[in-house]
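Case study 2.
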Amino acid sequence: MDRRSKKDIVQLAQRYGIKLIVLFGSMAGGVDDKESDIDIGIYGDRLLTEIDLVNISTELSRIFNNDRVDVVDIKRAPALLKKEIFKNFKVLFEVDPKIKYQLELYAEAEFEELSSLYEIKRTQLLEFVND
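Prediction:
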């Protein structure tokens, strides 16, 4: 990412009160081609509105020169998605590194807490299908 893009990301983050912006998914893992989308996770002071998310996605599309940008508000993301985000990611912007570590730990704990419920649901669905 060039200096101009970094500056644009910092300005975007400041405008929306964003504390952390991460790249995740295939591009964070180094697997990207012309068909790859850009998966971005954001975490801020507040829940962002749908309009905010659309505007952020539009601005990031311009910054990355790619119309295929998907933006996820980490506060709203389900436990499984949070776990995936923090399994393999690259930081694009952060106010404080502690935020990233806290979110990683929280995502793992939330997933572990819910994993037994996921397993119960899975078992019930399998029983229903097999009956």
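The chain has one domain: 3-130.
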